[in-house]
Amino acid sequence: MAEFVRGVRIGVDVGQVRVGVAVCDPDGILATPLVTLRRDPNVDIDTQPSDIVELAQLVDAYQSVEVVVGLPVTLAGRDGPAAVQVRAYADRLAGAISPVPVRLYDERMSTVAATRRLAERGVRGKRQRAVVDQAAAVVILQGWLDAQRRRT
To answer: Concatenated DSSP letters for the chain?
Structure first.
């Protein structure tokens, strides 16, 4: 088994409208919410969307060693249309932050789990919509960190 490399990781929940971002401590123990970015609908191949530019700036600012992007596979474990779009997003992000690697992590139900946790804490309505993407990014990153810890 590979040994866990110390360093900050960034977790990303890619949605149609927003991108939730989370960050963890250098020891990979705890993921925390960071920011929600508005998705830039720009698909021009020659121009980097502003959300990818902002993510690249965050990777640089936090000196991140990896970025973990949630992959919304179907409940059957297959790629649906959303997973295809996220794979394309992750590829574009990887090009913008190279040589920092981008990892895809099965995020089935992360938004559902994040929404439930927020509701349990009394966060609802507009306040919930404002942070659910960050909370989903936390679920993704924490799940990935926990899986890495189990493997080492």
So the answer is: -PPPPPS-EEEEEE-SSEEEEEEE-TTS--EEEEEEEEPP----TTS--HHHHHHHHHHHHTT-SEEEEEE---TTS---HHHHHHHHHHHHHHHHHTTS-EEEEE-TTHHHHHHHHHHHTT--HHHHHHHHHHHHHHHHHHHHHHHHHHH-
Q: Which amino acid makes up residue 121?
A: R
The model's confidence at residue 115, banded by pLDDT at 50, 70 and 90, is low
What's the mean pLDDT in 91-114?
A: 85
- What's the rounded Cα separation, in Å, for the pair 15 and 134? 11
Q: What is the pLDDT of residues 8-31, one digit of tens each?
A: 999 999 998 999 999 999 999 999
- The span from the CA of 40 to the CA of 17, in Å, is 8
